[in-house]
Specification:
Elements lengths: L2 E8 L12 E4 L3 E7 L9 E8 L11 E4 L3 E7 L20 H12 L4 H16 L23 H14 L2 H12 L6 H17 L3 H14 L3 H13 L3 H14 L4 H36 L19
Antiparallel strand pairs: 1-4, 2-3, 3-6, 5-6
InterPro entries: CiliaryAsmbly_MitoImport (IPR051982), CS_dom (IPR007052), HSP20-like_chaperone (IPR008978), TPR-like_helical_dom_sf (IPR011990), TPR_rpt (IPR019734)
Keywords: Cytoplasm, Repeat, TPR repeat
GO cellular component, one term: mitochondrion
Length: 313
């Protein structure tokens, strides 16, 4: 248990010992413990027990001695390592093994141990404990392959997609939408609604190019300003401001009195102008840098005087 217990016969009771006056004297190789008595009157012999924690592996029990006098008890403990100081002397703490582990080790010690079989058993137990926390390994990745997915009725697909959107499970929603679009008897209204759901799911997952493709397919089925506005917003998120401006202007032709479309057109024009200005500045800077690198000039950095011969090379 990480401790050593010394049983020393003494002529006094435990109550007659002055516990507050215990003196400790440290030596190079020993520890002297002095426990004075309260009285020196003769009392019947009793067994006095002293317990010192965490010193079982740090001292040599065979070399420990004790002296019983009329005034005090002298204990001499001898340490195992001379380099360790007494205040820092401590045996390493050994953690107790579980009951089933110790039983298996005891059983294995009495018989011949097959290390290969033991290793296989340990790996099996470890994987059995971890398999409940790694259910994602058994899940199949999402594949937008219509040939591998069964068809689903459009109304059932719309109900499932709505519940999956509420939970934020957009990957499973894409699978449900693909199954709903694969149905042969799907109506144009349900097809538009499913495509709208799929475009929104692709935007949430960061697939802006797929969302633009979905909006284009919706526009082919039913041209309207709302679809063009959504596709322009996706173009704007991809920083394709020129394509966004074209879609906003096309949406304005469907709804001339739409204030949101007019405001989006002004914003897109500003972004296009700013982007063109930045491209022009970068182009001029690039041409300037190429000219400076191609033609050596005295004002360049490599021609500065540094006090050394050949500093420009």
């Amino acid at each position: 248990d990480g401790s050593i217990t010394l049983k020393i016969p003494h002529t006094s009771l435990c109550d007659d010992v002055r516990w507050n006056d215990i003196a400790l004297k440290y030596g190079d190789r020993s520890l002297l413990i002095e426990i004075p008595k309260a009285t020196s009157s003769a009392i019947a012999k009793r067994e006095f027990v002293l317990k010192i924690d965490r010193l079982f592996g740090a001292i040599v029990p065979d070399k420990c001695t004790h002296i019983v006098t009329d005034e005090c008890i002298l204990l001499m403990l001898v340490k195992l390592n001379d380099a360790m100081r007494w205040p820092n002397l401590e045996a390493p703490y050994v953690k107790a093994l579980p009951a089933n582990t110790s039983t298996e080790m005891t059983r294995a010690s009495h018989s011949s141990i097959d290390l290969r079989a033991l290793r296989t058993e340990m790996i099996a137990k470890r994987e059995g404990k971890l398999i409940s926390t790694m259910n994602w390994l058994n899940k199949k990745p999402f594949k937008d392959d219509k040939s591998e997915l069964e068809a689903m009725a459009a109304d059932v697909a719309l109900m499932r997609v709505a519940s999956q959107f509420e939970c934020g499970d957009y990957v499973e929603a894409l699978t449900t939408i693909t199954r709903g679009l694969r149905h042969s008897n799907i109506s144009p209204v349900d097809q538009l609604e499913l495509l709208n759901y799929r475009a929104y799911a692709n935007i949430q997952l960061g697939s802006l190019k797929d969302a633009i493709s979905d909006y284009s397919e919706m526009f082919e089925i039913k041209p309207n300003a709302d679809t063009l506005f959504k596709r322009a917003t996706a173009h704007e998120q991809r920083e394709d401001y020129e394509a966004a401006l074209l879609d906003y202007e096309a949406a304005l032709k469907f709804e001339m009195a739409n204030a949101n479309v007019r405001q989006a057109i002004r914003r897109a024009r500003e972004l296009v102008t700013q982007n063109n200005r930045m491209k022009a500045v970068d182009s001029k800077r690039r041409e300037k840098d190429d000219g400076e690198r191609s033609v050596p000039r005295p004002c360049m950095r490599q021609f500065e005087i540094r006090g050394k011969a050949g500093a420009c090379f």
